[in-house]
Each structure stands twice: as structure tokens, then as C-alpha cells.
Amino acid sequence: MSDKLVFYNAHVCPYAQRAYIALKEVGAEFDVVNIDLLNKPDWYKDVNPELKVPVLATEGQNLAESLVIVEYINDRFPEKNLLPKEPIKRANIRFVIEYFASKVAPEFYKLLMNFKAENAKADYEKNLNTALVRLDELLKQQSATGPYFLGEQFSLADVAIAPFVIRIHTINQTLLNGLELETVKSSPRLTEFIKALIARPSVQETWIGDKELVTFLQKRFIDKE
């Protein structure tokens, strides 16, 4: 395929970072158009009527939704094997992505939306520790050793989860004054997984930066009247 990929991104968005990581991992050639989520240009509605990121322009179409895009990237660059051929591994990858999206990531957003509420931080810590117990079990069921979900192989599970892991880590270290989650401290497998995702070159290369993220979150959520 010879058409030029155009990636519509917002550095603050974890869903956009999923697609960005996948593009980096497969070594794709692409142009990046950054969208300001707090001041979206009028023309962007012609790219995505829902005005969301990410979008990947390819083959004459604009693909939306992060998991749709990352699976397309895998299908277009199958030699990188981000989604293995074995049906059971593919199923397990999709399951852990769904688990993380439904049980772990929501606690991040609940905290931001209710940051100044009396019990927000305590509830966040309690609920996140509980959700991470099951994530730790899923990691060990898939592979007793890491560092990634499948073990040594980096996959779409890691692509999908990494943007949230690095954001949760940043929030814990900054806005929550170095919070250390008990579930993470007590699980070598989970600790290794988190450290490996944060350190992955494709994650670091597409990361907004700790200071920039905190500034955005304070403006968008915490200090919003």
C-alpha cells in the first residue's frame, strides 16, 4: 500500500496515544496533525463528525476509535505481530483490554471528576487496589514471567493499557504526593509490567510529559468551575 497515513492526535489523550504507540511500534511512515481538545478547529468536524481523537486517515477513509485503529495497524503491518495468530492469545489480549477499560481506567476518571470531594482520593486508592488484584492474576495466568502481558512479546494488550498506566503513575506521583498502591508493591509481576510499559521507547516517544499532563488535567478537570 502506498497511500500516506495521516494521524490526528492529541497528546493529552490516552486513546490517541494508543494509536500513536502502535504506529511507532510497526515503524509506519505517517504525518501527525495535533488537535487542541480545548479549542478544536472547525474543519475537524469534516475529519470526524464526533470531534474525537484519534483518527487515522488511510485508503481514502478516516478511521476512528482507538482499538479499531490499532487493530487496523496490526492488520496492515502483520509482520510486527502485535496481535498473535493464536486464537487463545488473541482472545486473552482482548479480554485484558476490556477488563482494564471497565475496571481500572474508570477509577482514574472518577478521581479527576471528583478530585475535591471529601472521599475521592480514599475511594480511588481502595477501588484501584481492588481492580489491580485481578489484573495481577490475569498477568500471571497469561505468563508467569514478564515484562509484558504475553511475557517477552510486546502486544496490543500493552499498547492499549500503557497510556493509562503512565497517566495513573504520573497522577500518583504528583497530584497524590507519591502514592504507592499496595497491590503494586506486593506483586513483582505487576510491578515489572508497569515499569516495562512506562519505559517502552514507543510510550516515552509519544508521551506528553508529566508537567504538561498535570497542567492540562488541572485546567480541564480539577480547577474547572
What does this structure look like?
There is one protein chain. The chain is an alpha+beta fold and about 220 residues long. The protein has two domains: about 5-80, Glutaredoxin, CATH 3.40.30; about 85-220, Glutathione S-transferase Yfyf (Class Pi), Chain A, domain 2, CATH 1.20.1050.10. The protein is built from nine helices and four strands. It has a four-stranded mixed beta sheet, with helices on one face. Keywords: Oxidoreductase. This is Glutathione S-transferase omega-1. GO terms for molecular function: glutathione dehydrogenase (ascorbate) activity; glutathione transferase activity. Pfam families: GST_C_5, GST_N_3.
Provide a quick synopsis of the model:
The protein is an alpha+beta fold and 225 residues long. It is built from nine helices and four strands; from the N terminus they run E-H-E-E-E-H-H-H-H-H-H-H-H. Helix 1 links the parallel strand 1 and strand 2.
